[in-house]
Amino acid sequence: MSGSTIRYNFGSLDALASDLKTQFGRLEELSGQLKRQVHALAANWESGGAASYQQAQVEWDRLFGDARLRLDGLGTGVSKASARMLETDQRVGRSFTT
């Protein structure tokens, strides 16, 4: 690897994994607020718009669940990769002192 440098910012990788969880949690919170507001209106909303909303909500819930699984996997992957590289870096460093 002539002229190449390997650098890992472990703090940034950990922050990325944490931020993914935090931001998706916020999105879940907003989705829940919307559902509660629509539920409060449901008794007075019997038009075609209500049925269309319910269909859209089912699709949103499906997509949201899929995105949740993918982002959880991404966050876990980032955390594991960071931990593995830190361990590898430390092991390489120790190999020069023994």
Automatic annotation (TrEMBL):
The lineage of its organism: Bacteria, Bacillati, Actinomycetota, Actinomycetes, Mycobacteriales. NCBIfam families: WXG100_ESAT6. Belongs to the WXG100 family. InterPro entries: ESAT-6-like_sf (IPR036689), T7SS_ESAT-6-like (IPR010310). This is ESAT-6-like protein. It comes from the Bacteria.
